[in-house]
Amino acid sequence: MVSRNNVRLVLNVLQQYRKASRIEISKYSGLSPATVTNVIQELENLGLVREAGKTELPMGRKPILIELNPDIQYLVGLDVGIGKIIGVVINLHSDIIKSIREEFDVNSDDFDLVHEMEKVYLKLIEGLPQEIINKIPGVGVSVPGLVHLEKGVLVFAPNLPNCNNVPLADKLSQLIGKPVYIENEARAMALAEARYGAARGYKNVFCIRLGYGIGGGIIINGELYRGSSYTAGEVGHMTILPSGPLCHCGNRGCLEVFAGGGAIASTALRVLSSGSNSLIREIAEDDSSSITARVVSEAAKRGDEIALKIVKDFANYIGIGIASVVNILNPEVIIVGGGVANTGELLFREIKNNVKKRAFTTMMRFPEILPSMLGEQASSIGVAAYVFEEIIRNHPEYFKVSKK
Ligand SMILES: [Zn+2]
Q1: How far apart are the CA of 214 and the centre of ligand 1, in A?
Q2: Per-residue confidence of the chain (404 residues) as pLDDT tens digits?
Q3: How far does the centroid of ligand 1 lie from the alpha carbon of residue 245, in Å?
Q4: In angstroms, what is the span from residue 319 Cα to ligand 1's centroid?
Q5: What spacing in Å lies between the alpha carbon of 154 and ligand 1's midpoint?
Q6: Cα-to-centroid distance, 140 and ligand 1 (Å)
Q7: Could you tell me whether strands 205-210 and 214-220 are parallel, antiparallel, or unpaired per DSSP bridges?
Q8: Contact predicate 337/343, CB 8 Å
Q9: With the C-alpha atoms ordered 72, 4, 14, 202, is the resulting torsion angle positive or negative?
Q10: How far is the centre of ligand 1, averaged over its atoms, from the C-alpha of 238 (Å)?
Q11: What distance in angstroms lies between residue 141's CA and the mean position of ligand 1's atoms?
């Protein structure tokens, strides 16, 4: 019987590199070649991995490549945002089989998050071959808030009305007849980027998700770090100014109230109310309710002075947040994702300048700051990957059952 931890290490390598020889797996995982051989044997018995040709070396013995058997199971991830849910079905290579994006109104009187998730799940599997649906071992849900992982409870969701202390996993599971696993959206994104995206090949990673709110995910030594009660990474609620504006979390002056998507939109509204001329107004078609962080970043990309100033101030705050994280964690790489990160090179230049100015580690080795590779689907892919990890950890027999 090989240890679960060694299985995890081998799977991490196969998720990151897709195909690897036993020697490469040993090198990247730090496990001895003999251990790797044993783990691969067990995974082959489960039907979870298979041989995938030989290494293309010009001469000598060509090692056999191993890969995950992509279609032995399918993974589903639902990423709940403020007013939208993004759903994906992926195979074990993280190829997207199907993805959808559905909107909902958080302010409507009959808003019921569990019901919205059920609708999206049903729409997601609609039309998929029954063979694929049967091979979905569970559903992952990422949420913008604090979660209790084992209990599957959304504990605190400051930006979603009436969603505190909701037993999301149990409720959704009863409706769809599959086990449900929940995780925080920023941690899910970090996991996705580490396994399949921009943070592949790095062991220590910090991922910041810039959306309506601001979240963070920490990867230490290749694994998600969740903290002692699942609140690690909440960079959006670090205090920037003790007497600052009130945050949804109840505190004052959090990073999120200066640099969250909501804050960017309201800053733009305030500046424009003085009658200034700006592309922001044009892109929003003169409708102030259409001014969002996305509109501001679009205007900035097109060189609008007011939008550029807002983005610059916003990047300054993000830089302060990231620099503090760099001082504590000393990561190799910072991944910046979420809708607001789409502002592109301009935003990254400003963030880098600010982090360089403030982070103490500058004199040692400066971490790379890279954009997310998986974009809008990062959290849904990540929470699907989390389902895979949970099932390997607790129910590896699921794979045996589905082996033909
Ligand atoms: Zn806060």
Answers
A1: 9
A2: 678 889 999 999 999 999 999 999 999 999 999 999 999 999 999 889 999 887 776 777 788 999 999 999 999 999 999 889 999 999 999 999 999 999 998 888 888 999 999 999 999 999 999 999 999 999 999 999 999 999 999 999 888 888 899 999 999 999 999 999 999 999 999 999 999 999 999 999 999 999 888 999 999 999 999 999 899 999 999 999 999 999 988 999 999 999 999 899 999 999 888 878 899 999 988 888 889 888 998 999 899 999 999 999 999 999 999 999 998 999 999 999 987 777 778 888 889 888 888 877 655 678 899 999 999 999 999 999 999 999 888 876 666 644 44
A3: 10
A4: 17
A5: 17
A6: 26
A7: antiparallel
A8: no
A9: positive
A10: 7
A11: 23
Task: Say if CB 369 and CB 348 are below 8 A apart.
Answer: yes
Domain layout of the chain by residue ranges:
4-68, 74-189+378-402, 199-372
Residue 186 Cα to ligand 1 midpoint, Å, equals 15
Q: Which two tokens stand for residue 283?
A: 């892109």
CA–centroid distance, residue 155 to ligand 1 (Å):
15
Q: How far apart are CA 170 and CA 154, in angstroms?
A: 11
Topology agreement, domain 4-68 and domain 199-372: no
Centre of ligand 1 from the C-alpha of residue 260, in Å = 10
**CA 372 to ligand 1 center in whole angstroms:** 24
**Domain 199-372 CATH assignment equals 3.40.50.720:** no
Instruction: Determine the Cα angle at 160 with ends 159 and 164, to 5°.
Output: 105
CA distance 185 to 205: 16
Cα 85 to ligand 1 centre (Å): 23
- Using the mean position of ligand 1's atoms as its centre, give its distance from the Cα of residue 250 in Å: 6
Q: State the distance from the centre of ligand 1 to the C-alpha of 257, rounded, in angstroms.
A: 7
Query: What is the 235 CA–ligand 1 centroid distance (Å)?
Result: 9
Between the alpha carbon of residue 363 and those of residues 19, 48, 183, 327, the distances in Å are: 37, 45, 36, 12
Supply the CATH classification number for the domain 4-68. Answer: 1.10.10.10
CATH of 74-189+378-402, one of 3.20.20.10, 3.40.50.2300, 3.40.50.300, 3.30.420.40: 3.30.420.40
Closest of 364, 332, 329 to residue 193, by C-alpha:
332
